Amino acid sequence: MDARLNLIASPVAAKFGKHIVSASKALSDSTLPVATQHLVTLRASQINGCGFCTDMHTKDAEHAGETSVRLNLVAAWREATVFTDAERAALELTEQGTRIADAAGGVTDEAWANAAKHFDEEQLAALVCLIGLINAFNRMNVIVKQPAGDYQPGQHA
């Protein structure tokens, strides 16, 4: 299976990609816990049906030391006992921020207040930016039907 468009070979897409990848550096350098970052990118990718990003973020999280139990339970985080309260707040914010079109009010005040209990302002800023960024990547890959399964950890570092 091939993608509809080679985003790396396209001058416009490659230039755009370079800019959004550089934006992700600010997030990886933030104080938002790395484990939380992995959970957020994986959950948004699952919701958006982005096989490429789901593959990538699962493998990168595992490579960084995340357990298979936690990775396998991300889609069912509400019922799982393996996530901290802070991670659960981040996952809720991720779901609501990713499913904006499904809820007339967008992200609820309750979800925001819960996240604010666990993260300082800089971490919240990183979390909001990360949710926006992963949704952009997901949409690009879903639109071009980027194949999944061959990603190797660190391949796009």
Automatic annotation (TrEMBL):
InterPro entries: AhpD-like, AhpD_core, CMD-like. SUPFAM superfamilies: AhpD-like. Residues 26-95 form the Carboxymuconolactone decarboxylase-like domain. Gene3D superfamilies: AhpD-like. NCBIfam families: ahpD_dom. This is Carboxymuconolactone decarboxylase family protein.
